[in-house]
Amino acid sequence: MHVALLRGELGRREESRKTNLRAELTSYVGKNADVAAVRDLIAEHRLTTLIGPGGSGKTRLATETARTLLGDLPDGAWLVELAAIGADGDVAQATLAGLGLRDALLAGEAQNAEPTERVIAAIRERELLLILDNCEHVVEAAAAFAYRVLGECRRLRILATSRESLGITGEALWPVVPLALPEEDAGPGEIESSPAVQLLRDRASAVRKDLAVDVQTLATMVRVCRALDGMPLAIELAAARLRTMSIDQLANRLDDRFRLLTGGSRTALPRHRTLRAMVDWSWELLTDAERTVLRRLSVFSGGASLEAAERVCVGDAVEREAVLELLTALAEKSLLVAASDGAPRYRMLGTIKEYAADRLAEVGESDLARHAHLAYFTELTQTAEPQLRRAEQVEWLATLAADHDNISSAMRGALAAGEAQEAMRLAAGAGWYWWLGGHRTEGNELITAATETPGEVTDDIRATVYALVVLFLNSGPGDEHHAAEWIHKAYRFSQISQRRHPGMALAVPLELMLQGSDPLAAWEPLLDDEDPWVRALTRLHLGKMRTILGHGGREADTYLESALAEFRALGERFGISFALTELAERIAVRGEFAAACEHYEEAIAAVTEVGTIEDVIPMRSRQAQLYWLLGDEDASAAATAEALRCAERVTWPGALAHLALSQAELARWRGDAEEASRQLGVATTLLGDEAKHIRAGTHDLLGYLADDLGEARKHRAAACEAAAEAGHAAVIARILVGVADLALRCDQYEQAARLLAASVAVRGLPDRSHPDEARIEQTVRRRLGEAKFAEAAQEGTQTSWTQLVEVTLAS
User: Fold this and answer.
1) What does the alpha-carbon distance between residue 214 and residue 196 come to, in Å, rounded to a whole number?
2) Which residues are in the Winged helix-turn-helix domain (predicted)?
3) pLDDT digits over 174-224, tens only?
4) CA 525, CA 315: separation in Å to the nearest integer?
5) Which ranges constitute the DSSP H helices of 497-553?
6) CA pair distance 175, 49, nearest whole angstrom
């Protein structure tokens, strides 16, 4: 019998079995496409290895694939479970056990045969699939065994599972990734069909028959699956917890996932019964140097570049030159995900990151690693900061965007530790990136928190940060009250600073304006500044200030056109878009709506390049109005839709309030009073009554919407008060048109003509983009006749606008 066995002449009982795969008790969810792909690999390659982190579903994918092949394999598919053998265990003996041959070969001639020889003798001529499961702790022995038996058994194919590859020539690899998660904006149908949620629902329904699957429950399930990175084992452990807790309780406690997820199946491998045991298994297989690097990588958020890892992970006998090799080893062991899109980046799944952070705390290195992380990203932002005002800004913005989460977490760590100097240094480096890169809400929060952190900070750093803080005006309710304080501080520290940041130059004219100096005279000295970006921005501000003050005309256009040319020469997209936007508005006021829309389109293209999505919103909103005035309702609707899509991606109150106010005006033009009122409520909620331009615009529109003259008069008075406080000529001019509408409704035609003329005088030219101005003028001309209209208009240009308003509101 023993000779027959050695020759592979198995007995009838053995021949009747084609597999030792056990029937599964649960359905297979979410990986059918992977099964098909692995089948194809097995058909093309004699050795295929499924690699992936613990708990990713490698074993289940292997066995499910093998089941589909049983009809094509004359001698079946056989599972060899290596998890139970030690690091020095015998892979061949485990294979004999898997084939059901170990006990049969213990006596007689076979007892002297080497185990691998026994395996070869048993399967030499057979066409079968061996599944070597869980090879990672015996990877070298498994590789040697696979290499030998594949060389001797030409009809054999091997499917291995491991947290790292076997490293044999000819080995095909299939990365087993976590289950797919729904997109952030996915609807209920997409959520239900996502593999990760499907698995949670399936396993949860087995332990909780009363689990209702409504929209809220689905949203909570997504939270759970996302927190667990879509890892099948973690999701199954989470589902088991639903025997004794609700889905909301589960989701809210996943911050302590290792303590929570401990209720695995009693029949599972010991390391699959708890989440911690699963990761412990991988940890024990690492060298000391690999453990050091993995621990320190836990301080990163959103992954690490090679350069960052080399700076942060050195120490404990880990030299900088060795970090790349160690990162590669950790990636090969499925503890890191190495992204290869451009420069390599390394990231950990959330569960691994939390585990490594715990290990970092255990050895008392959390602060050491955090400070190394903070130092690196402070240096990176300070290197990038001046380049963000040059042609290289797109490349540097991409560099910083890749590490956005790291920059934010470094700042939050410094703030939490009360490290004022460190927080302010990072704010000085990152402030312009936050503004330019579309992160204004977060940037405002972090910079403000840094300025409020008590502690010693150098004058140079304070001057830079306060100059940047001024950028974040109109960030929310009440911020206008802080503007003067921030400008004063920026100016004061800039006067004693030894370092010169471009923002400090801008603090000087702003301070002079607060002191009552002529705004144009305050800005003009900067026309000769040594920094070309400051010179370009100064020209832009001079053009804008002339418009604000009602000193428009060709000189304002000249400043704006010069600024545009200088920003183009620098390649600075934000400045280009800013100048184009100002020019577009001046063109629109003259009635050249199509040309204005083209300017806005070019501005949007420039600002989109750098990612300042907040600025796209007001541009698209204004385009929507201008297209409507052109009679192109389709283009107007498309611009509105694009503005709304952008709004879904930002939280900057100023941009969102501008959108709401613009939408309200467009709705009023269309005759939709209800929608106009709703949008006005949104604008007020976002910025409150303290934002003067929003308050003026809101009451102006409410004055048009009011059916009752008394109510309309009340809103006109409030609008005029806010406009006077704002001091912006264009705002005042627009409000005067509204008061003219009130005069018209009261049959005061001469007064309406006076107010229209005053509006033009304040602005410096008629506003052809304001349909009410044309409507009121046409009506009044028809009522008065040309001579009386001209006479009343002349009076309006010679009378104070405030006096005209007082007379109208009093009548």
Assistant:
1) 17
2) 286-361
3) 999 888 888 877 777 888 888 888 888 888 887 777 777 778 888 888 888
4) 52
5) 502-514, 519-523, 532-548
6) 8
Please name the amino acid found at residue 765.
L
Q: Are strands 345-347 and 304-305 parallel, antiparallel or unpaired?
A: antiparallel
- Cα gap 436→455, rounded to integer Å: 28
Query: CA distances (Å), 19 to each of 91, 150, 172, 255, 579, in order?
Result: 19, 19, 23, 42, 73
DSSP letter assigned to residue 695: H
Phi/psi at 45 (5° precision): -130, 145
CA 59, chain centre distance (Å):
34
> Residue for token digits 């830079």?
464
3 state SS of 77: strand
Maximum alpha-carbon separation in the chain: 128
Specify the DSSP element, H or E, that contains 82: none
For residue 289, pLDDT over 70 is answered with yes
Taking a C-beta distance cutoff of 8 angstroms, is the pair 132, 168 a contact? Answer: no
pLDDT given for residue 6 in this prediction: 43
The dihedrals phi and psi of 93, each to the nearest 5 degrees, come to: -65, -40
589: tokens are: 């006021």
Tokens 């061996």 belong to residue: 130
Given this model, what pLDDT does residue 670 score?
Answer: 93
Q: At 266, which helix (H) or strand (E)?
A: none
| 504, two tokens | 């400090």
Count of Cβ atoms closer than 10 Å to residue 113 Cβ:
16
**Which one-letter DSSP state was computed for residue 668?**
H
- The answer to pTM > 0.90 is no
* Distance between CA atoms of residues 640 and 621, nearest Å: 6
Do 677 and 710 touch, CB atoms closer than 8 A? Answer: no
Buried b (16+ CB within 10 A) or exposed e, 582-607: bbbbbbbbbebbeebbebbbbbbebb
Would you say residue 552 has pLDDT above 80? no
Secondary structure class of 130 (helix, strand, coil): strand
Nearest to 164 by CA among 328, 347, 349, 356: 328
Q: Where are the alpha helices (DSSP H) in 113-194?
A: 115-123, 139-152, 188-193
Residues in the chain: 811
Upper half-sphere CA count for residue 212 (Cβ side, 13 Å): 5
Q: Which residues contact 615 (CB under 8 A, 6 or more apart)?
A: 577, 581, 607, 655
